Structure formats: C-alpha cells, structure tokens
C-alpha cells in the first residue's frame, strides 16, 4: 500500500466524501472550476518520525495525534536499531513508499539515522527535525559525540545482553536497567508511564553506537533542532554544538531525553514550523 499526501481539508464537499468512500486519494481529484488553477490550499508534507534507542514508535503517539488533528499525514517508522547503515537503508525503503514531500524527524539515535537516510534525497525530504538528537558528520559516531562533552550518565545506567543467531551471528544489545530507566531517560514522565516505557524499551546494538556515519544530510537540507536541558543521555553541550554546526533553527526546552512523551505539544510545534516551510 502506498502512502499518499492529503489536501488540507477546508470544505467537506460531497465530492470529497464520495472520494474517501471509494478509497481514492483526495490529492488526485480536480474540483470543478479549478482545472489549470493553483490549488487554494497547499498540499501538506508527510511527516515521517524515526524513534531512537531505548524507545519505540509509540514514543511518538502524543506527537502523531496532534499532527493528525492538524491535518498532516504521518508515518511513525520502526527503527531496527542495528547500525546507521542498516537502519538508514531500512528508513529509505519506508520513504520509497511515501508520495510527495517529506519532513523527516529523528529522536536521539534516530537523528543519526535520518542524517544518513536523507542524503541525496533533497528533492523529496524538504526538512530535517532533530529532537534531543544526534546530528553527526561523516566519520562521527553516537558514542563519540556523547563522550565529546561531559554530562551523560548513560554509561552507568545500561546493561549489555549477548545474543547468538542461528546463522552463527553474534552480538550484544544494550538496555537501560529498568530501575534506572525513569531517572536516566524519562525523569519528567509520570512514574506509571515511565514504568511501561522501561518494560517495552527497544534495545540498540552496542555496535550501532560505535559505528561511524558516512553521510550528513543536514549539510544540504534545512534543519530544525530541539535541545533538551534536562537530558542525561546526550549532554546538552553536545546537542548545542551539533545544532550550531548544522546551522539548525534551534529551540531549547527544559525537558528530559523522552521529550516526545513528556512534552509532545512542544515537539509538535517544532515539526509544524518545519512543515510550514515546505512548498
């Protein structure tokens, strides 16, 4: 199934109602009297959201709900969390099934993934939005950028679990210890919600945090960044450094690393700012 853009609704005409009923895209419909004329409302970009380590697609739920109410088509993608090259290739396959312009949003390690996935896609990806995220340059890794500045306590909160695969492959996955999850990752999230997040956290391959990026799409695509001053995963100094280097339009907020959960309204505002620039 292909994901299509939607015209921003302004008048609920009978024609559009029939179109929806038969499963056609409203973007493909020419209203009477508008042939050859510019549309009254611009077509909105699809917002594609990429979660980071120790989270899953549900971490965007509050943002998705707000964007959908505002009329944006949204895709909350699953991130394999295996490494920048693998994860970027997977995300590009998702983008292949999205028609029209895209605003690509990454949280945490998801910023590394969108930076690589969007390289060379300037005709499709019109804006990059980094939410408490990495904005690596080619040759940089997530762990290297984290350790470049003081402030992260992640190393004290994680545990590694070794695994073996039937084909002989081996590796290690990294989790945040459940008892430390809230204080480390989601200090401003209600305790009951943080407990659920800890139980459902997606592990990241240890090698993914050490793998170096090979592309930096923020060099060619306009970027926005939300910096979180209560972050214990990515030091705020690192976030500011990367955002300034990328010349990203930057907003600072007092929030934890799990800002998409604790402050979805603030995250949505940044995404909409980027989306409004798409023509």
From TrEMBL:
For this UniProt record, the keywords arranged alphabetically read as follows: Hydrolase, Signal
AB hydrolase-1 domain: residues covered: 47-268
**Residue span of the signal peptide, if any?**
1-37
- Provide the protein name: Alpha/beta fold hydrolase
- Entry keyword Hydrolase: yes
| Top-level taxon of the source organism | Bacteria
- Please name the GO terms that the record assigns under molecular function: hydrolase activity
